[in-house]
TrEMBL record:
Residues 39-73 form the Adenylate kinase active site lid domain. Keywords: Kinase, Nucleotide-binding, Transferase. It holds the Pfam family ADK. Belongs to the adenylate kinase family. It comes from Motacilla alba. The lineage of its organism: Eukaryota, Metazoa, Chordata, Craniata, Vertebrata. Signal peptide: none annotated. It comes from the Eukaryota. GO terms for molecular function: AMP kinase activity; ATP binding. This is KAD4 kinase.
Length: 136
């Protein structure tokens, strides 16, 4: 989830700046639930592991200390599902607001490396390149 997450936050943001581009990433519910539920932590250090793409060397234990990893309550599958439903309900009016202003650009997918080229192309067409001192 990004920002703004609620209509109240969107209206507060309007008081600070005028947005001309909003990006919405549409990722399937199950994909998000699985990714967030794969997160485990080492409580003493705060080190975070993801069982899918950054697992510990030995399952269930911290790489540096060998102490057990835990899954936080908010990362358990049922809690993640409830959080995602709540977010979707809160975000819907925000999405509709930006869609009605004609500034919403939506991208769908399940993998960053497949979505990013499309987002990059959009941003590249809207934001001038930053030139180094040598290029000026």
């Amino acid at each position: 989830p990004g920002f703004p997450r609620t209509l109240g936050q969107a209206k507060a943001l309007d008081g600070i700046c005028q947005l001309d581009l909003v990006i919405s990433l549409n990722i399937p519910f199950e994909t998000l639930k699985d990714r967030l539920s794969a997160r485990w932590v080492h409580p003493a250090s705060g080190r975070v592991y993801n069982m899918d793409f950054n697992p510990p060397h030995t399952q269930g234990v911290d790489d540096l200390t060998g102490e057990p990893l835990v899954q936080r309550e908010e990362d358990r599958p049922e809690a993640v599902a409830a959080r995602l439903r709540k977010y979707k309900d809160a975000a819907k009016p925000v999405i509709e607001l930006y869609k009605s202003r004609g500034i919403l650009h939506s991208f769908s997918g399940t993998e960053t490396n497949k979505i990013w080229p499309y987002v990059y192309t959009l941003l590249s067409s809207r934001i001038p390149p930053v030139l180094s001192d040598e290029e000026h």
